[in-house]
Design goal:
207 residues, mainly beta, Tumour Suppressor Smad4, 6-stranded antiparallel sheet, 5% helix
């Protein structure tokens, strides 16, 4: 037995699915014919995410440069070049030039070098000393010995200090000032140092 019904216009439809003939529509509603509208422009493959030219893109805000003074206040460190002739203030003395070295060849600081400057260089473990040999506990904290360079004669001398520790030059105890020769051996505590001059007969810093 067929379950379809026939409307007054002769159309067949299933009354279990439709309350009235779907072909005839709803009475009293004037619906015009369906018309095709304009098609949207197609986007080429691979350009789906490209922004449209007509849409203005917001620009990123400009990041202001951080001045050096402000960088220091927020914990940042700025690299600044150092130029002695430009950065030194008027009337400030120039840095003491190097006149020689003491090179540790035996002891806790083996392999290190220590700079010798003009006039007296006090030797000890304290950081206040001109030549600080902090790794050797047998060296007196202050004034264990003194190495001096006299610019007029261009001579180096080794002096005993006023501390308890002794100083030896080429195996002999130093109790009075003695003139140093290139590559002399100096003993302080457990450290053996070799003297290497830079200034002398062949070169002197201009006064």
């Amino acid at each position: 037995m067929s379950t379809e019904q026939r409307c007054n216009n002769g159309h067949f439809y299933n009354p279990a699915k439709f309350s009235s003939c779907p072909h005839c529509g709803v009475a009293g509603i004037d619906i015009g014919p369906t018309k095709m509208g304009p098609r949207a422009p197609t986007v080429p493959l691979g350009f789906e995410s490209a922004p449209r030219a007509s849409v203005a893109q917001p620009s990123a805000p400009a990041v202001p440069a951080v001045p050096v003074a402000r960088a220091a206040s927020v914990g940042e460190q700025a690299t600044v070049g150092w130029y002695p002739s430009r950065d030194r203030k008027a009337g400030e003395p120039s840095p003491d030039p190097i006149v020689g070295w003491l090179v540790c060849v035996e002891g806790p600081d083996r392999g290190r070098d220590f700079r010798i400057k003009a006039q007296k260089n006090f030797i000890g473990r304290s950081t206040s000393m001109d030549i600080c040999i902090a790794g050797d506990p047998r060296i007196s904290r202050e004034n264990h010995a003194i190495v001096a360079f006299e610019p007029r004669s261009a001579q180096f001398r080794l002096y005993p200090g006023d501390a308890r520790g002794l100083v030896y030059l080429n195996g002999n105890m130093v109790d009075v000032p003695v003139v140093l020769q290139p590559f002399d051996s100096i003993e302080l505590g457990d450290s053996h140092l070799v003297f290497v001059p830079f200034c002398g007969e062949n070169f002197r810093w201009p006064e």
